[in-house]
Amino acid sequence: MRKITLIIICYIFFGLLTAQTINTKVEKPSNIYIGTPITLDISFDTGLNDSIFTPREDTLDIFIVYNITQQDSVKNNEKITNLKIKMAPFDTGEHQIPAIDFTIKSGNKITKLSSQPITVFVKKVTTDSTKTIKDISPLMSIKPGFWDIFVPLFVLTIIILGIILLLRKLRNKGKNVEEKVEIVDNRPPYIICLEKLHNLKQQKFLERGDYLEFYFGISMIMREFISLEFKINAVEMTYYEIKQALPRKDMEIRKNILLFLEKCNRVKFAKFIPSLQSSEEILNWFDNFLQSFENHQDLNEQKEINNV
Fold first, then answer.
1. In the listed set 104, 123, 142, which residue is the last one of a domain according to the structure?
2. Whole-number Å distance between alpha carbons of 286 and 221
3. Structural domain contains residue 27
4. Would 304 be classed as within a structural domain?
5. pLDDT tens across 46-87, in order?
6. What is the full DSSP assignment across 79-112?
7. How many domains does the chain have?
8. How would you list the strands of the sheet with 51-53, edge to edge?
9. Is residue 15 domain-resident?
10. Which domain holds residue 41?
């Protein structure tokens, strides 16, 4: 019995010696407003030959991540990894920076580490009500004379007459101009966006190495497609708002759209530099994704015929 107890104590002792710890803290000002930079400081120690896999996230709920730096150092035959994630909130209220998961591979052993969730309070930008304008001397009484009243009234009359004459002139001119008819594009959304994607290819951003313009362009085309196909204003929404608004009817399509936007945002906001091959692959995927909706269109038309 004593031998078994001794073995258990040894296992616990060596387990504590080899345990990997993760420290999390936030570098922030005393008052946080919308857009105020916050730095999430994460550090942990691993073996010298361990491999570290970090998640690729461009957003953490309501926080936009726009800069990630990593610094490694060695101390007492251990590798210390320090990550600084710079982010900014875009909503007010009490919010939580969620835990971030890391995967550590030591030979054939895989360990999961998670940072601590941290709660922050984002304030509105308001003026200080205590700083009011006060008189530094008593108000002076002024008695306006004839010209003080006549000149402003005369100038005001001239301005009003000028505005009336200008409006009449514009109205008469407008009668001779034919009214423009607003052209509504009734084509299916995937055809409209395929045409825009074709025009984007003609600009040859990838050949020139202009990855930022390329990913900005294809992400806008995807947002226009979401707006037309799902009837939500995705062009004016953030990634988090699109994630909340997308219908959950077809989870595979929803998953592909969100993954596509994440890859685009990584280049646009996190300063990630993609390879030419990966950029061409995402371009070909987007082309095939839009063309796949031709089958969806045929199915919808067939349903309408059956209903009739």
1. 123
2. 10
3. yes
4. no
5. 776 777 766 655 556 677 887 788 888 887 777 788 878 888
6. EEEEEEEEEEE-S-EEEEE---EEEEEETTEEEE
7. 2
8. 51-53, 101-106, 109-114
9. no
10. 21-123
